[in-house]
Structures are given as C-alpha cells and as structure tokens.
Specification:
The chain is an alpha+beta fold. The chain contains 10 helices and 8 strands. Helices cover 39% and strands 20% of the residues. The longest helix is centred in the middle third of the chain and has 14 residues.
Length: 249
C-alpha cells in the first residue's frame, strides 16, 4: 500500500541525518523504510512535501549546504552589490564590476550560479563596467544585509548562520571584498623602494569591521587610514594574501 509521508516526517529524518545517524538507524527510529529515508537524505524529496521558507516561499534553506563560493559572493555583494525588488516577490541581485578584469567577472557569475543553481546568472555591459546579475525570490534570505538606503547608513552584521561559513572560509570572504572594493598596488617611497600592498576602501564602518575580522582570523596585520581605508602592508602578510587573491585580472 502506498503511504503518503508528511513534511514533518521528512524534516525529522533530515534532523536525524544532521545529528550523524545513517539511513538504517533513522529507519529503525522512525519506522520509515530505509529506501525512502535514503532517497530523502540524498535530496529526492517530493516537491509537495518540501517545507517552504516563510520569507520567500522557496524550499527551506539549508545554510550549511551552501557552497564555499557563497562566502566569496557575500564579500562581493557587501562591496559592489545591491538587491532590487521586482514583481511577484522576485529580487534582482546585481554587481557592477570593472570590465578590465574578465576573470573576476567569470568568478562572480559562477558564484551567483552556484548559490542559486535554478536561477541563471547573466551579464549586461555598460560604459566602463559590466553588470553581473541574477533573479530569485531567495536573494534577500541569502543576503540578509539587504535593506533600505545605502549600506553605510544602516547596521551591517552577519547573521548567526553566516558566521560559521565566514569562519571556515575567511580567504574567500577577503577575496570577494578585495575584488569589489579593494586592490593590490605597489607602494613606493623616497630612495626608490617599492613593495606591494593591499587596500580595502569602503565608507561603511561595519563592513570594515568584517574585513578586519577576517584578517584577524588569518593573523594578518592591518592598519587603518581615516574612516574609509584599511591596509595590509607587511611583507609576510601581503605574501599570504597573494596566495588567495593576488593582482586583479
């Protein structure tokens, strides 16, 4: 006899999976056939039984299953990204980038696509820049730093579910921030000395705090210049950042 399973049963099995149990153990605890459990934990969940997000109506978000590239996308968004509302609850995520750096364009487009595989990422050329964009109802959930007004005019903090992602991938977070609002340049001085240096420039004190916090996690020494600039200048620290950022391309 065919048995219809509820969303609560599916959610219970997924919770048990997250606690470390295997399909056989979950089946014994719940009385649900092992084959059914195995299908559910591999992602084969009937659309009609998937729980939906109360905010966007999309299937409930599994934050811990977001790809590492999401952290990169978050950094890029905090620098040069914005969300715009469209009809029927859809939002457009767009990031305006310098057309001189095709590899960054590729990386941002790929990160958008990986964050929302069912929503295509596209490009639109403008004078001197390229806009990378994607439409989805879920963007405000994935990028909860969205809000009315300019970013520097409102608090910008990480949600509790974002913190462990950034802690696991601080290199990708810094890479995104530098690719949007930073650069690597050659500093010069009297006597002809030359040395590379990283600069992050943003008018939001909170976003600077997030940049500096990621530097602290990697033991990178930073210095502040005014309200808009954070530098990483020590030779060893620049060399460390070169391992995961380097000059823009």
């Amino acid at each position: 006899m065919f048995v219809t399973r509820s969303a609560d049963e599916i959610a219970r099995c997924l919770e048990l999976r997250d606690s470390g149990l295997n399909p056989g153990e979950i089946a014994r605890l719940t009385g649900i056939p092992r084959a059914t459990v195995r299908d559910w934990i591999s992602g084969l969940i009937p659309r009609s039984r998937r729980r939906s997000c109360e905010t966007c109506g999309q299937p409930t978000h599994a934050w811990d299953e977001l790809p590492p590239s999401y952290v990169y996308l978050l950094g890029v968004y905090l620098g040069d990204g914005c969300l715009s509302p469209h009809p029927r609850g859809v939002f457009k995520l767009r990031v305006s980038l310098d057309a001189r750096y095709p590899r960054i364009l590729d990386e941002v487009e790929l990160a958008m696509q990986q964050a929302r595989p069912s929503n295509p990422a596209r490009r639109c050329k403008h004078p001197g820049c390229v806009e990378v964009y994607s439409y989805s109802k879920a963007w405000p959930c994935l990028l909860p730093q969205h809000g009315p007004g300019k970013k520097h005019e409102r608090p910008i903090t990480l949600e509790k579910w974002q913190e462990p992602l950034v802690e696991r991938h601080p290199e990708l977070f810094l890479r995104g921030l530098i690719h949007s609002d930073g650069c690597r340049f050659i500093n010069t001085g009297s006597g002809g000395w030359r040395c590379p240096r990283y600069l992050f420039s943003n008018v939001s004190a909170d976003i600077h705090g997030l940049f500096r916090g990621a530097c602290d996690r990697l033991n990178l020494h930073w210095t502040q210049a005014g309200k808009k600039s954070t530098y990483v200048s020590r030779k060893a620290d620049v060399a460390r950042m070169d391992e995961f950022i380097g000059p823009k391309r």
